[in-house]
Amino acid sequence: MNISKNEQRALHVLALGGRILHERGNGPKVTAVTCVTREGMILSDFDLTVFGKLRRKRLIESHAGSPYRISKRGRLSVRAQLDNQGT
């Protein structure tokens, strides 16, 4: 499966205990997302396009309106990396 650098970065944050906070408009569609690390820092290059790709590939999931977290498939797809702040 092809996973871009931004998607890998987000998956690393989620694998280390992060979460994706989402906001919905008037309907069921997600209108804004924020990827938050375990320490409370915000991942700057995370946007709706990266969120959509991760969701379409079923690498993240949400249960009963809770924040999105990494799925089992996502944990298996994330590449091992010593430091996810790479170049």
Keywords:
87 residues, alpha+beta, two-stranded antiparallel sheet, 3 helices
Structural summary, described in words:
This protein is α+β, with helices and mostly antiparallel strands and about 90 residues long. It has one domain (about 5-75). The protein is about 30% helix and about 20% strand. It comes from Pseudotabrizicola alkalilacus. Belongs to the UPF0386 family.
Short description:
This protein has 87 residues and is of the alpha+beta class. The protein has 3 helices and 4 strands; from the N terminus they run αββαββα.
- Class by helix and strand content? alpha+beta
Instruction: Catalogue the unreliable spans.
Output: none
Order of secondary-structure elements: HEEHEEH
- Work out the count of structural domains: 1
The portion of residues assigned to helices is 25-40%
Radius of gyration: 12 Å
> What is the residue-mean pLDDT, rounded to a whole number?
89
Largest sheet: 2 strands, antiparallel
Count of discrete alpha- or pi-helical segments spanning 4 or more residues? 3
Report the sheet-strand fraction: 15-25%
What is the first-to-last residue Cα distance?
A: 21 Å
The strand line-up of the biggest sheet is 1-2
InterPro entries: YjhX_toxin
Family: Belongs to the UPF0386 family.
Pfam family, one: YjhX_toxin
Organism: Pseudotabrizicola alkalilacus
